[in-house]
């Protein structure tokens, strides 16, 4: 019996990891991390959204003698999209504003990666604003595609 419980727990963890991986959208680019993030920031600002922060995780790690390589996060949003979602369920504020990470994998390939907002917010009471979440999804697709060009 105990072995069955351990096996069930292991399968649940593996399934959760796979589900998390399925929630992430990866966009390949031939640019450097910095160039991709510069392009993303320009695209976000050009679309009328607000950039709240750009975090250089690589620089932060170097201050404690850890080499992460070049890893940057852009945090941005637009109240026209975020406010209706948070109005439907204030807990959405835990997941908003939107975020995109740029990093190079072990082979040097640079990626822009973000979590699909539909998946991120699927456990909340946001059914009334589902079209807005679709707009968030579309904006992330367009912005990261433009940045990756």
Keyword list:
149 residues; alpha+beta; TATA-Binding Protein; five-stranded antiparallel β-sheet; 5 strands; disordered N terminus
Shape: globular
Any idea of the CATH class? Alpha Beta
Mean pLDDT: 88
Q: What kind of sheet is the major sheet?
A: 5 strands, antiparallel
- The oligomeric state is single chain
Q: How does CATH name the architecture?
A: 2-Layer Sandwich
Strand arrangement within the widest β-sheet reads 1-5-4-3-2
Q: What fraction of residues sit in β-strands?
A: 15-25%
Structural class: alpha+beta
Number of domains: 1
State the low-pLDDT regions, or none.
Answer: 2-19
Task: Please tally the β strands and state the result.
Answer: 5
The proportion of residues forming helix, as a percent range, comes to 40-55%
Q: CATH homologous superfamily? A: TT1751-like domain
Q: How many angstroms does the end-to-end distance come to?
A: 54 Å
- At CATH level 3, the topology is TATA-Binding Protein
